[in-house]
Amino acid sequence: MSDATHNENPAILQLLPALISGGVERGTVDVAAALVKAGFRAYVASAGGPMVHELNRVGATHITLPLGGKMPWQIAANTRAIQKIVREHKIDIIHARSRAPAWAGYHAWQKLRAAHVPVRFMTSFHGTYNLGEGMWGKIKRRYNRVMTQGEQVVAVSNFIAEHMQREYDTPPEKITVIPSGVDMIKFDPYRVSDERSIKLLRDWHVPEHVPLILLPGRFTRWKGQLFLLDALARIKDENWFCVMFGSDHGHGKYRDEVAARVTELGLEGRVRLLPQCDDMPAAYRIADVVAFPSQDPEAFGRIAVEAQAMGRLIVASDHGGAAETIVPLPDQYGTGWLFAPHNVDACAAALAKALNVSDEERRVIGARGMGHVAQHFTKLNMCDTTLALYNQLLSETSE
């Protein structure tokens, strides 16, 4: 495939299950907007969702396709649909961001190449995708492996790049590490009005003059709500109030278990469980400490980066993406506290340190975090690097 073939308005098709919420979805929309701005034609195929209107607003085209289907007949139907999309819209690159869509995209790419249709295929590896054990583990590994079959593969962190090489023998030359990026305009503490902050404090019934600890994230064991409660029980003598918020995505029983643990630990009146927040910048702004106690390694960990962008103090498990996005204190350039995963006492100690920093220390650490994110984890960096990878693929000759 030569440069001459793509000298005008190349077309990129991103594939994912749906456009409801989450880091993958946010990155897809951000990249689509950057593509349109750079003169590409941007297409996204998914089952749809609330974020479709954002695609429309930036000038990208959404194509409704039930790409979440994992059954062989669903993947076969989606394979045929993707082939049709590629031919009709003269797609140059298929970019798959999730496993079921990737299988359909991969099969479509193979069939199109066999028919001498010049299209490239790449993937983004966004998670560790649990492997399991025994026969089920072998099946899962085969299913997951499609995410390494792109001609180029994006890893959202060095942790994920190492995981791909270790678990799937992915050649390192195929992998490009592109961390997820934060919108530095949206996540700017100086752009969040006092009115927004005050409204949230009132809506949440946060007591005055009490340091606020936030744990944003879905209510699942992975996110560590129960673990954080155990840590907070060890620092009852400190002055704090904690809000845990997020959707439960059908895990209502787990939310009930968290509520029961609050009572069991005697933390009633000091911990509040709330649904998903629609104004994350305001939530960060009113926080004194943001907790990120993930029980399994996060592929990237957007919360840790957003919190730093907002100048907040962050306390997180020392594994996965968080170990790459937070500079651990007491380093002179430290931006937050990392504690040994699953160590409740270490988490409690880190929380106590964060709660007891002076106002000047808080200001300095917060400023370091903002600078750290601005240098390494912006939406602009992510989009520029992704578009550079697209251009690299377009300039190469397909085998």
At the first level of CATH, the class of the largest domain is Alpha Beta
What sequence of helices (H) and strands (E) makes up the elements?
EHEHEHEHEHEHEHEHEHEHEHEHEHHH
CATH superfamily caption of the largest domain: Glycogen Phosphorylase B
Note the overall shape: globular
Question: How many separate structural domains?
Answer: 2
Tally of individual helices: 15
> Span from first to last CA?
9 Å
Taking the sheet with the most strands, its summary is: 7 strands, parallel
Quaternary class: single chain
Helix content: 40-55%
Q: Count every beta strand, where a strand is a DSSP E run of 2 or more residues.
A: 13
Low-confidence stretches: 1-6
Mean pLDDT: 93
The CATH topology name of the largest domain reads Rossmann fold
Strand content: 5-15%
Rg for CA atoms? 22 Å
Structural class designation: alpha/beta
CATH second-level architecture of the largest domain: 3-Layer(aba) Sandwich
Query: What spatial order of strands do you see in the largest sheet?
Result: 3-2-1-4-5-6-7
Task: Give a summary of the structure in a few sentences.
With 399 residues, the chain is an alpha/beta fold.
Summarize the SSE layout with pairings:
Elements: E1 11-15, H1 23-37, E2 41-46, H2 52-58, E3 61-64, H3 72-89, E4 93-96, H4 99-114, E5 120-125, H5 134-145, E6 152-155, H6 158-168, E7 175-177, H7 194-204, E8 212-216, H8 225-233, E9 241-245, H9 252-264, E10 271-274, H10 280-286, E11 289-292, H11 302-309, E12 313-317, H12 322-325, E13 337-339, H13 344-355, H14 359-376, H15 379-395
Parallel strand pairs: 1-2, 1-4, 2-3, 4-5, 5-6, 6-7, 8-9, 8-11, 9-10, 11-12, 12-13
